[in-house]
Amino acid sequence: MRTLIVHNATSIKELIIAEPTLSRLHFLPNGTLSKLYILRSSLATVPLTLKNLPKLSVLKLSQSPIEQIAFESFCNLSALTSLNLKNNLIASLTFQASSATSQCYASLARVSLSSNKLKHVNMTVFAAMRALEIIDLEYNQIEVVAGRLSNPKITTVILSNNNLFTINMCEWNTMPLIKSFSLAVNSLSQIPQCLGRMRRVQFLNFNHNKLTRITIDSFVMLTELRSLHFTSNAIQTVVPASGVNRIPSSLRDVFLTNNLLTRESVANVFPPAVRIIN
C-alpha cells in the first residue's frame, strides 16, 4: 500500500499505521482522531494534512526516511501534547517564525527526537513551545548546541549519547522548573559554565565523558541538587568549594566510579551526609 486516505466520516480516536511501503498519507478534516502512531513507513516528509486533525494530542512518527523537520508543520495542532519523532533520519530542525506561528503549541509538553542523525541543534527552534517540559535529543550525533533555550516550563533536558565536546549555556534563560539534565556519554572535558541557569535542578548526569577535574564551585548555586553522576570519566582531582561557598545541603549522592580517584582524595570534599559511590 503506497497511499492511504483517512476519511472524515470515521469516529476512530486512535490510529496505528505500520506499513513500510506507505509513501503518501492524506487526512480529510477529522474532529475525533486524538492519537496517531505511524510506526513504520516510507514517508519522506511530514504529511501536510495533519492540520486537518484539530483534536490530535499524541503524534508518533518513527522508522521513516524523514530527513528534515519544519516545526511550523505542527503549528495548527493546538491540542498536541506529545510529539515523538524517534528513529528516523532527521538531520535538520527548522522553525519559520511569523505572525501565524506566534500562538503555536499551546499544549505541547514533550518533544522526542532521539535516535536520529542530528549534528547541529539550535535551541531557538523550540522557543515557540511555551508549554514544553521535556526535550529528548538522546542518541544523535550532535556536535554543536547553539542558540538560547528559553522555554519557561522545562523540567527535563536529555542530551546523552551524542558527540559534544563543549556546550555553552550562558545564553540560555533561567530554567526555574528544571529537575533533570543529562549530558552522559559525550566527550566533555570540562563542566559547562553557567549551570546556575538551573538553580532548581535535582539530577545532573555527566557519566561517560572525558572530565579530568571537577570544581565544586560549579555546583554551589544549585540549591536543590540531590544527585551528581560522574561515573567513567578520567577524573583525577576534585577541587573543594572555595571561600564562603558551600555544597548544597540537598545533595545526597555523588557517583565517581571508574575514575582516577581514591576514597581518601574526596573524603574531605563532601560533608558526611553525602554518600560517595567510588
TrEMBL record:
Pfam families xref list: LRR_8
Lineage, uppermost ranks: Eukaryota, Metazoa, Ecdysozoa, Arthropoda, Hexapoda
Organism, scientific name: Anopheles gambiae
Xref: InterPro entries: Leu-rich_rpt, Leu-rich_rpt_typical-subtyp, LRR_dom_sf, SLRP
Entry protein name: LRR-7030
GO cellular component assignments: extracellular space
SMART domains reported in the protein's UniProt record: LRR_TYP
Xref: Gene3D superfamilies: Ribonuclease Inhibitor (3.80.10.10)
